[in-house]
Amino acid sequence: MSMEDYDYLFKIVLIGNAGVGKTCLVRRFTQGLFPPGQGATIGVDFMIKTVEIKGEKVKLQIWDTAGQERFRSITQSYYRSANALILTYDITCEDSFRCLPEWLREIEQYANNQVVTILVGNKIDLAEKREVLRQRAEDFAEAQSMLYLETSAKESDNVEKLFLDLACELIREAKQNKLDNNDTAPMPGEGKTISYLSCCSLN
Amino acid sequence: MAAEDLPSEFDVVILGTGLAESVVAAAFSRVGQRVLHVDRRSYYAANWASFTFNGLLTWIQEHHEESQPEEAQDWSSLLEEGEELIYLSSDPASISNVQAFCFTSEEDEEEEASSPDPPNTTEEETGGANEDVVKETSETESADLKEEETKEKPEERADGAEKEQRFTALNDGKSTVQTDVFRPITQASKTDGKEPGADQPTASAAQSQSEPAKKKISYAQLVKEGRRFNIDLVSKLLYSRGSLVDLLIKSNVSRYAEFKNVTRILTYRHGKVEQVPCSRADVFASRQLSVVEKRKLMRFLTSCVEETEEQRAYNGRPYLEFLCDQQLGDNLQHFLLHSIAMVTEDTPTEEGLSSTRHFLRCLGRYGNTPFLFPVYGLGEIPQCFCRMCAVFGGIYCLRHSVSCLVVDKTTNRCKAVVDSQGQRISCSHFVVEEGSVGTDWKMVTSPPRFLSRAVLITDGSILPSDSDQQVSMVTVPPIAAGCPAVKMVELCSSTMTCMPGTYLVHLTCQSVGSAYEDLSPVVTKLFRTPESHDQENCPSVLWCLYFNMTDSSGLEVEGHHLPSNVFVCSGPDGSLGHEHAIKQAELIFQKILPEEDFCPPAPNPEDIIYDGDNNSSSMGGEENGGAGEEENDGAGEEEEEKKEVLEENDGEEEKKEVVEEEEQSLQTEGIRLQPLETGSGSVGGSDSCSPPAGSQISRRDAVQTPEQHTASTHNPQRESASCMMGN
């Protein structure tokens, strides 16, 4: 690759209890798949998707926990150099919501100070089984100064929005850090996806 | 985070997450073995771990407490006909003589800092406090921290204030530190994301910051900025052509870590710290060496690359004698013996020469010295291998142990283990850290050996230079007869192991006495402490820790009376590199799976090609993404299950080219290891190949096959020769 095929590269890391749908969110976003009953993802460290935000190509490197969250044994090095964290819980599982403070402590301990954190309530397709009210989650997210979004990896609700908004936010932060003119920073909703293949065809 | 039950059947169960165990775990998982990896501790990497400052205080406290031997539960009810139990030890006493000292004031010193008097008095009086007092301080502190951890954020302000008062209480009667107990509470609250200087809200404090008189960092500040520290229990470096670097590259585990070059090699001589010239550029730039010495040194280094008749004549005789006969003079002799070969005066010539050659081979691969250090500390390395194991399906469980082995009486093989919850888990092989094996089971050949360790947090570099971001390896020859030679590593804040404005210094030697007895004389000579004299220009020690650790380099993987399918991994050894642990891991792997490849490259996720528009995913494991789809040999292997594709690719596509990638924006901190450094760029040993401090080194994975890789890394002599000699 003689030419860079992206303007930004961000490392996004997923955390949250086992079974809340972290891998499904990534696979839905990167591959458009919803694999029912799929087990642990073997041999895949992270997934890549390049999106376009206001004409700029943003490469997202999305890292999954590799199952280490099952017994609360995530390595510290997993959090290092992450630009954004997606903290996921399952709206149909009170317990996954109650564990959030524990996850926040890990973030505080090991993640970069500037990391952008977004709270995601997944499985809104199972609305009838909802255990965590939206308002409660919103309040919690606000108290911890996190963004909040509810998604369904199954129905593909808000999944694109989740990653695109995150990309927008990351670009805005990156530009702010460079003391660039903030006016050019994109707002959420301005992104669009481009396929991974098309960005590789340069080679 | 709900606790589930573990599966009950594995191929390999591994207890302990030290370096060797973690490499073994990654290696097995990578070739499709079902791995369970547990550690009784709440953190990864066992005695190889790194801690935040607060985490280290907790660790110290744990090692002060009388460890109560856990009551061995009787699991014999889990036995079947013809089986018996072997209980593992739950009390690995590998750490001893833990002593911590604080030489800085407990609290911030804004008042003092703004007054002209430097707060030296506090230093002496706090430092003069006896050991128990210091211990008490740190214990109380870590207890506070534990409390703090369980509290929610909003309460932290109050907690901070509370803590402050407790500190003051501790100070009472022990020192004359004047602390402002009633200063604004906000100061003690969390101010993450700010530089240490930025959290002083008062104008007077801000002024004093800008004054030339440096404000000494207080203990409270170390605690507050505690998460910026990553303090290693072991102190080692990576030889840039050592087996760990080769393994990291070969396995692609290197993608999880970043590295910094050790920027200079120093030595302590005639009461002074001097820089050791080691690359060609260094030699010519050196102001300590005369022209004649420069020429002699270059000639010597060139000549020792290849073995000569003359050298062979000295086999069995001390290297020092060989060096003397080369008429090199005192300066060069010192550098060559202590800093380049890093051996002692009575090391035999062949060994001295082989260390010298190893040093020279490693020069210039990534920079001006032969060494690399991982950003965030050495504790990252075992975790990186654990991540690799998990990515390939290994199951991880900290705070979980194995209490006993279930042994088949007739075959004398370990059939299963019983975990700390009383679950029987069957396995074909069991790998265990040395500390969990009772001494009765070990074949002891020599008396136990120990390492003496010291960790210092200082306020300045031992040899100030243009850049305050130097990573230095310092060799300290025995300061008196009978004293051990000490290896010292000084880390700057850009290694992400200490807070800005401080340096983290690790000292290591083979134990003669306790860590304090062995190392405090060196600390006193090189740094300013309450015991030191005339050390006005030396950096001050703010806080320090001494401890001894078992040196388990003597232990063999099968050096035990346990069943034959049980393998023991030793803990850290005293050498500078990681050769021992890597060799051990490879040996265990080969004994169990002699036919399999040890840590073959994991596919690069960048090369996995997803076809997002339809519902099937196709991926070519190690496909060269740059070559596009046409060359996708794996195209016929499209599978819905990624797993299968990957497994097939493992066998067939390893010779595939590795994608050339540049991931600049991820690499703000350090060096990514590259599978193959291109000859022109990195060989030469001149400044041109060393990265400018703080710059980004982009990953340039050269296109290559594993064969090429082997060839290139195993032809080191020519390169090192050109490295020293090339123009």
Automatic annotation (TrEMBL), chain A:
One of its GO terms (biological process) is Rab protein signal transduction. It catalyses: GTP + H2O = GDP + phosphate + H(+). InterPro entries: P-loop_NTPase (IPR027417), Rab (IPR050227), Rab30 (IPR041820), Small_GTP-bd (IPR005225), Small_GTPase (IPR001806). CDD domains: Rab30. PROSITE patterns: RAB (PS51419), RAS (PS51421), RHO (PS51420). It is a lipid-anchor. Its EC number is 3.6.5.2. GO terms for cellular component: autolysosome membrane; autophagosome membrane; cytoplasmic vesicle; Golgi apparatus. Pfam families: Ras. Keywords: Cytoplasm, Cytoplasmic vesicle, Golgi apparatus, GTP-binding, Hydrolase, Lipoprotein, Lysosome, Magnesium, Membrane, Metal-binding, Methylation, Nucleotide-binding, Prenylation. Its main location: membrane. Its cofactor is Mg(2+). It is found in: Autolysosome membrane; Cytoplasmic vesicle, Autophagosome membrane; Golgi apparatus, cis-Golgi network membrane; Golgi apparatus, trans-Golgi network membrane. It comes from the Eukaryota. GO terms for molecular function: G protein activity; GTP binding; metal ion binding. The small GTPases Rab are key regulators of intracellular membrane trafficking, from the formation of transport vesicles to their fusion with membranes. Rabs cycle between an inactive GDP-bound form and an active GTP-bound form that is able to recruit to membranes different sets of downstream effectors directly responsible for vesicle formation, movement, tethering and fusion. RAB30 is required for maintaining the structural integrity of the Golgi apparatus, possibly by mediating interactions with cytoplasmic scaffolding proteins. Belongs to the small GTPase superfamily. Rab family. This is Ras-related protein Rab-30. The lineage of its organism: Eukaryota, Metazoa, Chordata, Craniata, Vertebrata.
TrEMBL record, chain B:
Coiled coil: none annotated. Residues 451-573 form the RAE1/2 domain. Residues 105-114, 628-652 have a biased composition (Acidic residues). Pfam families: GDI, RAE1_2_domI_C. One of its GO terms (biological process) is vesicle-mediated transport. GO terms for molecular function: GDP-dissociation inhibitor activity; GTPase activator activity; transferase activity. The keyword Signal does not apply. Residues 201-211, 705-720 have a biased composition (Polar residues). Belongs to the Rab GDI family. This is Rab proteins geranylgeranyltransferase component A 1. It comes from Collichthys lucidus (Big head croaker).
